């Protein structure tokens, strides 16, 4: 599919609930010089709220984007413990993770809530990275596509008119997150290809060809080349392997090397 080369690859670090401010400062200081020659790939760091201000400050004049790990769909009000898109933008965040499996599985976020959060991020001009994926039990029961397609459809239903560059999806098989297990490159391509096909049915081929779809699930330097070589895979949402600056730099440089136009 020649059109896929138009999509700019993205490598995103999800620190989850890790790194104090000092550790975040050290990480960014180590990362930036190691990726300065990685042209043609977008880089995002999804940091905890406590270190997000400092990450945003340190990368302000670089191509790297500061991202939050969550947001709420209201701009203000009596929502103790929540953070709005306007608050995130105020400190320099340009992207946000929405519907990560840990938010869905541990904190009970519904497809409806994820969709509303996504719509608010798009409306505010932030780039949402929307996560979809299945558990091992769902995969074994043959329910993978039912689960993923439902999650994708609910998000698209909530959104108004937008182009594919306004949103990123990340396919993250839950059984491969933090377990060391990884979907084969062919499995990743199959799932992501189906998602792109569904987006085409829902919003047209032009929209579908513009949407970047990342793979998330124990991606590391040893497999990034094979995964990035797949036609419909546009990058990675990286968890554990993103916690070391050197390792994440390898992934960024690997993405740049394997997605040259």
Automatic annotation (TrEMBL):
Pathway it works in: Carbohydrate biosynthesis; gluconeogenesis; Carbohydrate degradation; glycolysis; D-glyceraldehyde 3-phosphate from glycerone phosphate: step 1/1
GO cellular component: cytosol
Subcellular location: Cytoplasm
Active-site residue list: 100, 172
Residues reported to bind substrate: 14-16, 178, 218, 239-240
Catalysed transformations (reactions): D-glyceraldehyde 3-phosphate = dihydroxyacetone phosphate
Main location: cytoplasm
One GO MF term attached to the UniProt entry: triose-phosphate isomerase activity
Protein name: Triosephosphate isomerase
């Amino acid at each position: 599919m020649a059109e896929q080369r138009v999509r700019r690859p993205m490598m995103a670090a999800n620190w989850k609930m890790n790194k104090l401010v000092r550790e975040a400062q050290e990480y960014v200081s180590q990362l930036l010089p190691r990726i300065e020659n990685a042209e043609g790939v977008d880089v995002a760091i999804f940091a905890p709220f406590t270190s997000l201000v400092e990450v945003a400050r340190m990368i302000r004049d670089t191509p790297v984007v500061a991202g939050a790990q969550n947001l709420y769909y209201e701009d203000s009000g009596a929502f103790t413990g929540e953070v709005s898109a306007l608050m995130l933008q105020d400190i320099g965040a340009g992207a946000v993770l929405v519907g990560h499996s840990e938010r869905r599985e541990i904190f009970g976020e519904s497809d409806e809530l994820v969709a509303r959060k996504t719509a608010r991020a798009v409306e505010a001009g932030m780039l949402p990275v929307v996560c979809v994926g299945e558990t091992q039990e769902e995969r074994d029961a043959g329910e993978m596509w039912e689960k993923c397609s439902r999650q994708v459809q609910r998000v698209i239903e909530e959104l108004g008119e937008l182009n594919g560059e306004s949103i990123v999806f990340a396919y993250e098989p839950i059984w491969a997150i933090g377990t060391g297990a990884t979907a084969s490159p062919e499995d990743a391509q199959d799932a992501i290809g189906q998602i792109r096909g569904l987006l085409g049915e829902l919003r047209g081929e032009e929209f579908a060809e513009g949407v970047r779809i990342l793979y998330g699930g124990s991606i590391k330097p040893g497999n990034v080349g094979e995964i990035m070589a797949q036609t419909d895979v546009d990058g990675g949402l990286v968890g554990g392997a993103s916690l070391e600056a050197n390792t994440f730099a390898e992934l960024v440089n690997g993405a740049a090397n394997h997605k040259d136009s």
